[in-house]
Amino acid sequence: MAESGGKSVHRGGSPELLGGPLGLYLHIPFCEAICHYCNFNRGLLDAGLKERYLSALSREIEASRDRSPVDSIFFGGGTPSVLEPEDVARLLSGCRASFDVLADVEVTLEVNPETALYERLSGYRSAGVNRVSIGVQSFRDDELRRLGRLHTAARAIGAVETARRAGFNDVSVDLMAWLPGQTLSHWCETVGTVIALAPEHVSVYMLELYPNAPLRDEMARGGWSLEPDDVAAEMYHTGFDQLAAAGYRQYEISNVAKPGRRCRHNLKYWSDGSWVGFGCGAHSTRAGYRWTNLSDSGAYVSCLFDGASPVVGRQALSPDERVSEALFLGLRLTDGVDVTSIERRYNVDVWRRWGNELTRCVEAGLLHPDPVRLRLTRRGQLLASEVMQVFV
Question: Which of 19, 82, 153, 247 could form a disulfide with 139 if both were Cys (CB 3.0 to 4.6 A apart)?
């Protein structure tokens, strides 16, 4: 991302050159049910806490006023679609009052299929949301039940169709592979269904079983198992091959899009961009600094109502940390990392510093043998963490 050429000040930090417009992330931690696999910062919906939380969120946004340009706003969670359209409108109004929100801003809101009612989606569209990301995960009812999802496959299909009727021409669908009891043919069936629905963007994630995930116990009780690793790899490659044949282009390890429909906001995370996060547990990275908010929603609300900052961790990133992160996060992109750009921006010779380790990755078939642009091979995409360890 090109340098902006101007100066700005992050919350509590010193001025520094920034690269490109900011992204804003708004965390909505409430869910109507907790999925068996989820490890995100979330809790069950409490109407009273939700109202206090939204007031606190508005206060945090207002306190951050600095009029910096913003070209993406992302409502994540949790389940942001538990918000009423007027809640979303109020929060977006606060963002516009505190920042210079550009006319072509990308505004994404994550939606669960069971909340995707026409009136609600139409209200979000009127409030200023122009992109929805629908958390489908699977188009098979048995797999959805095992994950603890509230919707059915038919409801998931209906959610995409309802988003279209509500006026959305930028729709993303989340899918999950390597589920308990899922076979390769079942996975291909799910990918075929999403292709038939023709969203502009698809995210494909491999299931990660966290140590305390209830799904572990559910699997033991139900006698469900995961396919071997080699089948998981085949699921990954076959799914992306299907999507490519349908006109989608992979641009990141887990993401494909139709031409011109890459997620602008998420690209900031992988392209050395800057973003400010609001809400409990939200993270921010800007101007060489990183900070994190209180993770507990009640404590976050109390802090804001007391007029205090919710930030609990603030770190000035060293030059070494900044260049390392730019490299290992950039490797997630299929375009890879432009070594010359990194060297110019951070005044470091990448091959002189990490050449031995990178050469071993090339010889192992994990990186393309290109000295100017570091790019993962097809095999390397599945073993990305091994390559990224070079820079950690």
Answer: 153
In this structure, which amino acid lies at residue 58?
S
Domain count, the chain: 2
97 and 207 assigned to the same domain: yes
Strand 16-19 and strand 3-8: the pairing is antiparallel
Question: Do 61 and 131 sit in the same domain of this protein?
Answer: yes
**232, containing H or E segment:** helix 229-245
Q: Which domain holds residue 381?
A: 318-392
What pairs with residue 176 in β-bridges?
A: 205
Query: What residue type is assigned to position 285 of the chain?
Result: T
CA 19 – CA 387 distance, rounded (Å)? 26
pLDDT > 90: percent of the chain? 82
Q: Are 300 and 289 in contact (CB under 8 A)?
A: no
Q: Is the pTM of this model over 0.85?
A: yes
Q: Please report, for residues 164, 187, 259, 296, 334, the alpha-carbon distance to residue 247 in angstroms, rounded to integers and kept in the order given.
A: 20, 19, 9, 42, 16
Torsion from C-alpha of 102, 120, 41, 136, nearest 10 degrees = -100
